[in-house]
Amino acid sequence: MVLIDDEKALQETARRVAPERFLPAFRNRQKAGVQDHAFPAELRALDILNLDLPESPCGVGLNAVTAGLIAEELAFGGLNVFAVNLNAPLNGAILTRHARPEAMNDRKPRMTLGESIVAISLRATA
């Protein structure tokens, strides 16, 4: 697969900011034992959050392979950088397909803009 210039630029951004900016912040958060709730919005501002969600609403609209290559670069900034980048579009897709409209309308815009972190818990039934 050949990346187009915009995809290469996003990959380069991720490659640059992960070790320079995100890794030191990740280490500081680990030492302090805190979560930075503003972090997803920072990813969104760089256009490297919600990479494989449709552009409307709030996605970047990339294919899954390109999103995976960029996520791989982000992993060099710490596991939580990768996890936020993976969980936001995954949870956004789950909400789009399965949530009641009121839940999706309440949570998805804030999550995809990086304003909130959403976790989905699944449980098996016997």
If you had to describe this structure to a student in words, what would you say it looks like?
With 126 residues, the protein is mainly α. The protein has one domain: Butyryl-Coa Dehydrogenase, subunit A, domain 1 (Orthogonal Bundle), CATH 1.10.540. It has 5 helices and no strands. The longest helix has 28 residues.
Give a concise summary:
With 126 residues, the protein is mainly alpha-helical.
Taken as a percent bin, the fraction of beta residues is under 5%
Top CATH class: Mainly Alpha
The CATH topology label is: Butyryl-Coa Dehydrogenase, subunit A, domain 1
Approximate helicity band: 55-70%
CATH architecture descriptor name: Orthogonal Bundle
Overview features:
126 residues; mainly alpha; Butyryl-Coa Dehydrogenase, subunit A, domain 1; 5 helices; 63% helix; globular
List the helices and strands and how they pair.
Blueprint (H helix, E strand, L loop, with lengths): L4 H28 L6 H7 L18 H12 L3 H20 L2 H12 L14
Helix pairs in contact: 1-3, 3-4, 4-5
